[in-house]
Amino acid sequence: MSFFKFAFKNLFAHKTRTAITLVSVIVAVAVLFTLLSFNKGYDRALKTQLQGMGIHMLVVPVGCPYEAASLILKGGKISNYLPSTVLAQVESLPQIEIAAPSFMSGIVRPEEGRTDIYLGVDSTILKLKNWWKLKGAFPTKPNEMVLGYDVTLIEQSHAGDQIYVPEKDATFDVVGELSPTGTEDDGFFYIPLATAQNMFDHAGQLTSIMIRLKDPADAPVVAAKLGNIKGAEVVTMGELLGTMMNLMGSAKALLLSIVLIVIVISALGVLNTVLMSVFERTREIGVMRATGAGKAHVFILVWLECLMLSLIGGAGGLIVAVFGARLIEGIIKRFLPLAPKGSVVSLDPHTFLLVLAFVLGIAVVAGFYPALRAARAKPIEALRSE
Amino acid sequence: MIADYRLQITDCRLRRGLIAVMAALAVVLLVQPVAASLCVWRSPDEDIAGIYNADSYKTVFEDIGDSMRARIEEKLGYELDPDETQFKFFPVFKAEDQVGTVMTHAGKGQFGVIEVVVAVVDTGTGAIVKAVRIQRDREKAKEAIRSKEFLGQFKGMTSADGFEIGTDLNTAEEGAERSSQAIANAVRKLLIVYDEFNAPGGSGTQ
């Protein structure tokens, strides 16, 4: 009987135990494979989404744009604004396709534990964000408003209703609402640009200009030219992507740590299964040794059991991952910030082989001790054991 | 023998571990978003001390089945939102004794959402209002709808009473009829829901 058949027979002799161990390996491998595929797919999807947004760069006031965004979210006042005249300078560049000015400010509502963010925009935003699905109309009068999807849920208000801003004693007619975008756009109150500037006492000032280029390859040239405008700073999507990736880093590291713990537990399960099998077969191993089997034969046999267990589990895990990737992706996405829309799992052969090699490595390590213990058993003592 | 015993223990532990993992996965996958009308109770400690002079509370979630939904809708006279599948109750305790129940509701006002906190006591035959508080709104009549004159009208009311602004209750101020009615509707709805859960054969709210 070959080593493979013998090892398979031993595993098959304890169906329940083998099956449970296999399940733990399958789950661990499936999660590992999906997570690695997710990591790869996430970066790709985020890049695609940012490119798909059609915004190639932002012109913002001098200073840290992330600090400014944080201040607005807390209802604080930022120290620098762009004069509206910058818009004309931006539009004068031949490479610019669309330049959409905006003015953003927040009102803290402490009793709700949140900040209402008002975004003053003009109709160029509709050309720039042409994927928006707007139910109703875009504001044409100073006191008209469009609600982001999340705002419609929070305020239970829709097109045709009115929204009052008590802090500014201003009443708006809701003329439209956005369908869910899955982005921060869902959380804004959209009002006309001039209304926002006046309401927050910053007439003629902007907080950003969103830009789409005719050819994205011109981004470095345009960024250099816009960087010369006094008081303005340019943030390209490449820089934004890098920042978002950094933000994601810690969340990814946490997830990977959890999966590694699952893998270790699974490896211990395999080790435990094989070790118990060795304990049970002490007498059988003694007979093998007494009838001519060498230490190497016993070592290989036990190690092979471990490898088979892990490889079958690994293969099963990969199959489960391929078919269950969408389900596991849904779970993972709940724990990650800034997740792009759509599928972010990229199932590719490279990851497939990497996981298989990893499982093999774990099996080699987990099987070493039980195999060594079995090989070291002295035939006489083994034969005496019950 | 020992090996078999070890095997049984290992199998048993592994099985239990697997069940725990599957249960955790099920919780992650099956938890549904809460109903739109549910809202956070933002200052529970102040409310239970101020309204009941009590010192503790607990949170109870109760699901409504199809038959209870139908009964509630019949009493309300309008349909609940499709996502209103669950209600939240906060039984309030003074020492070991329950002294009342708090409920919260988020409903559409005239200029945005109005969040209402309703404190009730149970008479044995149903709930009566002990106090009503507005915890969040963006109404123009902010002061009026939060006034003692307006909110005090609800004290002692039951689900059997009339809640029509202009007929059974006074508006908070002229021009705030819609906001006032929204608050009255919220109070009535919570009373009906409470009574339904605490009716004979109901699952209770404790």
Topology readout:
The complex is a heterodimer of chains A (386) and B (206).
Chain A: H1 3-13, H2 15-52, E1 57-61, H3 65-73, E2 82-83, H4 85-91, E3 96-109, E4 114-121, H5 124-128, E5 134-136, E6 144-147, H6 149-155, E7 162-165, E8 170-178, E9 188-192, H7 193-199, E10 205-206, E11 208-213, H8 219-226, E12 232-236, H9 237-280, H10 282-290, H11 295-334, H12 349-376, H13 379-384
Parallel strand pairs in A: 4-9, 6-8
Antiparallel strand pairs in A: 1-11, 1-12, 2-10, 3-4, 3-11, 5-8, 6-9, 7-8
Chain B: H1 2-30, H2 44-52, E1 56-57, E2 60-63, H3 66-76, E3 86-94, E4 97-108, E5 113-122, E6 127-136, H4 142-145, H5 148-151, H6 177-198
Antiparallel strand pairs in B: 1-3, 2-3, 3-4, 4-5, 5-6
Helix pairs in contact in B: 3-6
SS-based class of chain B: alpha+beta
Taking the alpha carbons of the first and last residues of chain B, their distance comes to 50 Å
Number of helices of chain B: 6
- Largest interface by residue count? A-B, 35 and 28 residues
Gap between N and C termini of chain A? 26 Å
Give the radius of gyration of chain A: 31 Å
Continuous helix count of chain A = 13
- Helix content range of chain A: 55-70%
Identify the quaternary structure here: heterodimer
Number of strands of chain A: 12
Characterize the biggest β-sheet of chain A.
10 strands, mixed
What order do the SSEs of chain B take from the amino end to the carboxyl end, as H and E?
HHEEHEEEEHHH
Helical content class of chain B: 25-40%
What's the domain count of chain B?
2
User: How much of the polypeptide of chain A forms β-strand, as a percent range?
Assistant: 15-25%
* Apparent shape of chain B: globular
Major sheet summary line of chain B: 6 strands, antiparallel
Uncertain runs of chain B are 1-35
Which percent range describes the beta-strand content of chain B?
15-25%
Number of domains of chain A: 2
